[in-house]
Write a structure and sequence with these properties.
The protein is mainly beta. The chain contains 7 helices and 34 strands.
């Protein structure tokens, strides 16, 4: 991609830090009230575990929450939940950052299968799944590699939909229709999903459409810190240039549902166009076609209660268009992933599963700014997870073996270089219920991750990060040992969750400036050279959230709610790059059958622990948010909702983003909408 000299130089100056978000991001700063007590988490445990009995940190967005959630990309929607931030590269492209980790360390799934896209390759690459398509999103904070492999060493976000129905809809048909509009970006979006059943067959169709213009910003795009360093003036443009989005996605699916299980297939297409923000005249078009198949068969007797299988195949193309409207660099991802699980029959509190996962994918980059060569990736993993729950105490454990192979010809090379990795991961945990409503857990995990294609094979100018990135074909497996303590409390008027963790990395793959520069002759500009290298590192922190009902009368409740998180990350070279600062959120909320309302204050601290001279500190900020929802009909599930975000029009920048110093978060925003569930 090419950019004007001014925008390119500012991006270069801001390399190593930043924040940008779409209109939905400001709304997503709010940490929603956690889904309560009896939610069953299927991500990470095929046999399912109650959220209040999980020894790892989990979070859930259910169908009711998603029906009125901001129309936003995945990272922006989840931003602000405990321990979760966003890469905030653009409203059209943002991935979750979990406990300071992102990219190849955070696995984004759809129904337990990888997206088979290229979103982990670069922060300007969009996730090929929109939250509006889902009826549930599950988040695991911390290592979850036993079921999902090394790409989940930092966490998992699992987008669950009903495109392949697993049960017959009540009354023969159900679904949801929603529409909303936002003022900060003239945004408009809509979503519809319908599932219908006839005999033993059920069919699903869904579609989503979202459009936004450039979003309004409360300050000049360039930060005061960057302006001072570069000696340039801050100009107030009123809106963030080239931050528009245009998304369309649709899918169909069907399944046969019998007494002993189900089996079905689905098809989905996603088309997205969005501005890159970093380069005012460049935009990106994404297209993916995806087929999925899933099924389950339940046994009458024997050691196993069921067998489940899923398979996905996708073709993904990400095309970057230059200012003249011609294709520049093209990224393709074509591949498949499948898994099968045997679920053990529950016996006296003992649950378990054994499974196998396999994937094969080809990543290809074409164009003058292709900084990674074509790479073939194959992986096979086998695993088991086990849990014994004796009521007042219990134990968990698991083991996984992975074999991952990458084949590619380095840029400028003449022969293929193959790397093979054999990785082992294991976990063990114990938990107690010492008093009614109280759950205490302690877990230890050893996890291993093979280097990604970028970390091994990169060799070229990467415009999205304003750096010349150099991989290292000699990189070894990244290993981490994690100790985590968990506490859940749910009794009377108070509910709360606390997670405290410490991770020690051996061979942490870090990207560090070498002090050298590279002259990019196409633009006659110099870029700092970054090298992927390995070092030791430690991450530690906590997440806490709680709710206290100060007044209750039947199903009407007035609650005080709060949440906080913090992560500290250090390597042998110094602070790790782009680690989010602490955050604290307070909220007063009213809930009732007909009317809900809340007022929220969210404070995000200053971050002055930076990795190098290219990563500037980030100022703290405080956001004031209001929301309300009314259900006017007793017999129809219709919700009218409204939200006012960033009411004080605060200048806010997300430290985890590469673009934070040239793109602040959106300004004051009013979002209104309607949702009908049937």
């Amino acid at each position: 991609m090419r950019a004007s000299t001014v925008s390119r130089s500012l991006l270069l100056a801001a390399a190593g830090s930043s924040a940008l978000a779409g209109a939905g991001a400001a709304a997503a700063q709010s940490t929603q009230t956690p889904t309560q007590v009896d939610d069953i988490i299927v991500t990470g445990a095929p046999y399912g575990v109650s959220q209040r009995a999980a020894v790892i940190a989990t979070d859930v967005l259910d169908e009711e929450t998603l029906a009125t959630a901001p129309a936003a990309s995945l990272g922006d929607l989840l931003n602000g939940r405990p321990g979760v931030r966003s890469t905030d590269f653009a409203p059209g492209a943002s991935r979750p950052v979990i406990r300071g980790l992102s990219g190849p360390r955070v696995q984004v799934l759809t129904n337990g299968i990888g997206l088979i896209d290229a979103s982990s390759v670069s922060p300007d690459h969009a996730v090929a799944a929109d939250p509006a398509e889902s009826n549930r999103i599950e988040i695991i904070r911390g290592p979850a590699t036993l079921v999902y492999g090394g790409s989940a060493i930092g966490g998992v976000v699992n987008i669950l939909d009903d495109r392949i129905p697993t049960k017959m809809p009540e009354g023969g048909i159900d679904g949801v229709v929603s529409a909303q509009a936002s003022s900060v970006d003239d945004g408009r979006g809509g979503f519809a999903r319908v599932t219908a059943g006839a005999g033993n067959f059920a069919f699903n169709v869904d579609a989503v459409k979202r459009e936004t213009d450039d979003y309004d910003i409360p300050s000049p795009a360039i930060s005061q810190r960057l302006a001072d360093r570069e000696g340039v003036e801050r100009e107030d443009t009123g809106s963030q240039p080239n931050s528009y989005t245009d998304l369309e996605a649709w899918g169909v699916g069907g399944s046969y549902i019998g007494d002993k299980g189900f089996g079905g297939v689905s098809y989905k297409e996603t088309d997205s166009e969005y501005g890159t923000v970093a380069e005012e005249s460049v935009f990106i078009q994404l297209h993916q076609e995806r087929w999925d198949a899933r099924g389950e068969y339940r046994f009458d007797d024997g050691p196993f209660s069921a067998i489940r299988g899923s398979y996905g195949h996708a073709k993904y193309t990400h095309t970057e268009f230059e200012d003249v409207g011609e294709p520049g660099t093209i990224f393709n991802s074509d591949g498949w992933e499948g898994r099968a699980d045997l679920i053990q029959r529950e016996r006296n509190g003992w649950n378990g599963a054994v499974g196998v996962q396999a994937l094969s994918r080809t990543f290809e980059a074409i164009g003058e700014e292709a900084f990674v060569p074509t790479v073939d990736i194959d992986e096979l993993g086998i695993y088991t997870v086990q849990r014994i729950d004796r009521g007042n105490h219990g134990f968990e454990g698991g083991l996984r073996y992975d074999r991952r192979e990458l084949k590619g010809t380095p840029i400028g090379g003449d022969s293929e270089v193959n790397r093979e990795f054999d990785n082992w991961s294991a976990s063990a945990a114990a938990f107690l219920r010492p008093a009614p409503g109280l759950f205490l857990g302690l877990s230890v995990a050893h996890n291993e991750r093979a280097p990604s294609e970028v970390e091994l094979y990169a060799d070229g100018v990467h415009i999205a990060t304003a750096a010349y990135e150099t991989g290292d074909l000699s990189l070894d497996t990244e290993k981490v040992n994690t100790l985590e303590g968990t506490a859940h409390y749910d009794r009377g008027r108070f509910t709360g969750d606390l997670h405290i963790y410490h991770s020690w990395y051996d061979g942490f793959i870090d990207e560090r400036a070498t002090g050298e520069t590279f002259l990019f002759e196409e633009e006659n500009e110099e870029f700092p050279v970054y090298q992927f290298t390995q070092t030791d590192a430690k991450f530690y922190g906590f997440e806490a959230e709680g709710s206290y009902a100060v007044w209750q009368d039947g199903d009407r409740t007035l609650s005080l709610e709060g949440a906080a998180d913090y992560v500290h990350a250090e390597t042998d070279f110094g602070p790790a790059a782009r680690i989010p600062p602490y955050s604290v959120t307070g909220r007063i909320a009213w809930t009732s059958p007909r009317f809900d309302a809340s007022a929220e204050v969210r404070h995000v601290g200053e971050q002055d622990r930076v990795a190098n001279e290219f990563e500037l500190p980030t100022d703290d900020y405080t956001l004031l948010n209001l929301s309300a929802a009314v259900r006017p009909f007793a017999q129809k599930d219709v919700t009218l909702f409204a939200e006012a975000r960033n009411l004080t029009n605060e200048e806010a920048r997300e430290h985890a983003s590469f673009l934070k110093d040239i793109a602040p978060l959106p300004g004051r925003n009013l979002r209104v909408g309607v949702a009908y569930r049937f």
